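Suppose you are handed only these lines of text.
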Amino acid sequence: MLFVLIIHLISITSVSTQSRLYGPGLRASFQVPVRYFYLQSYDSKGHKLNYSSQSVDHIIFHLTRVSDQLSVHSYRKIDDLNDGTYLFRYRLYESVENLHLYIRFGNEDIEHIVKGYIYSDGCYCPQKNLTEWFNSLECSSSSLSISQLREDLKLFNKIDMNKIINKAKEKYFQYPQTYALCHYVIKNNKIYRKCYGEHIGFKTFSDAVLLSLSRKIILPDIEFLMNLGDYPLSNDDDPIPIISWCGSEQTHDIILPTYEITEATLQMLSRTTLDIFALRTTHHLPWPKKIPKGFFRGRDSCQERLNLVRLSKKYPDLIDANLTRMFFFRDQKSEFEPFAEYIPMTKFFDYKYQISLDGTVASYRLPYLLAGDGLIFKQTSSYYEHFYRDLIPYKHYIPIKKDLSDLIEKIQWAKDHDDEAQQIVKRAQRFTQRNLLPNHILCYHVQVLQEYAKRLISPIKISSDMELVQHEFDESHIKKDNCVCHRLENLNHIDL
Ligand SMILES: *[C@@H]1O[C@H](CO)[C@@H](O)[C@H](O)[C@H]1NC(C)=O
Ligand SMILES: *[C@@H]1O[C@H](CO)[C@@H](O)[C@H](O)[C@H]1NC(C)=O
Ligand SMILES: *[C@@H]1O[C@H](CO)[C@@H](O)[C@H](O)[C@H]1NC(C)=O
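From them, the structure of the protein bound to 2-acetamido-2-deoxy-beta-D-glucopyranose can be written out as follows.
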């Protein structure tokens, strides 16, 4: 027994632990659906490594509860970022007090204790103080500083829901084939809604993020209209505030992050495969080996996509663009066949230049393109997402005219200015790291709700035809018994 203990002590002390862990997932209060942190590897002399020294298959990553050393029910993933750092992500299926992280990296044992209560995303345990929540999510470090939101709210200093609903009845609810909207009420942190329209399936996206947020914080009491369609709606002389996923220069909707990036945030490592980390965690050709051409794959959602493919036939040395499917312009099918096979976005980055064209509205893939290591050529467009306002042409991307008439010349410019092109790519990647990570997406939602709620002047009413939106506990994963919540003791006034 003593002998075993001595061996054990020797084996621990003989390992020189060089590698360092850093990142928000080492703190309990950084509550995002999938927590993440990084490992920086070092060589034996204490120098940072800038290449992979370990295959992820050989790295061990365990999570245990400090109190009883039992393994914690979780999903874990390690990714090699190919620069001497590794990304560690974990989704908890139970809440834990004091979490022990153990990593075996080469011959190093690395340990860290996440102190405090670490709540699972699936558990109901809202916190009252929003300022504390924002701080713990490090949202103030985002350079977005909600400039889009400020712009969106300029017209709406006082929000009267009676007026909005009356107008919406007349303009939208009467046309269920054209419009899909939900009237949401949040009161005492419970979510109610009534939806209007024939195609209201996308309410699952707005429900999901509101529910997820309500499990983490006490949301402000609020009443609003959520547009479930692609097109922004608020377009007349006396506009009403409608919350939408996409904005345009002709409309006055209040913009949330798209359902696409929000879903990727909530369902990371679960139901979605593409998330904001995916472009860093897959291996791409290094810049000098990439094909120096403009690349595009996608559907025929707008006329310029067809024109781009025509342009690529004319300039095959500069552009590789093909449609993968046709739906809107089927009558012109013969010109574009055979369609290109679908390829995952990570393969797009075998090419240096990524051409970003509108879809039916803004193309929701832009966050991922920016996160990747290609130079973005973005079509000028009147449609935008919540973060476009903070993207700066020539700093984060190369702007191209809506009709693509300057595309060839700009690709040629990029080929002639390879160093500058790479600088732009690096800045775009940094932009996504500072503004489009899961914490930023959640914070932006809450900021929209908070700012909107402040402006409501009508009393908040749950009408009798509204439905309570329920938390869905996936019993195979989360058991209510595993959702201890010390905060609830202080929340007695709220009926759970
Ligand atoms: C990695 O570090 C070495 C030594 O510091 C340096 O010479 C090399 O250029 C670096 N490689 C990359 C890809 O940054
Ligand atoms: C919320 O937290 C902040 C920062 O910790 C603190 O300054 C503030 O007083 C708190 N607000 C309330 C209402 O407790
Ligand atoms: C896509 O288009 C380019 C240029 O028009 C062509 O050379 C290429 O073969 C096409 N690729 C596929 C997969 O269809």
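What can we learn from it? DSSP finds 14 helices and 20 strands in the chain. The pocket of 2-acetamido-2-deoxy-beta-D-glucopyranose (ligand 1) is lined by residues 50 (CB under 6 Å).
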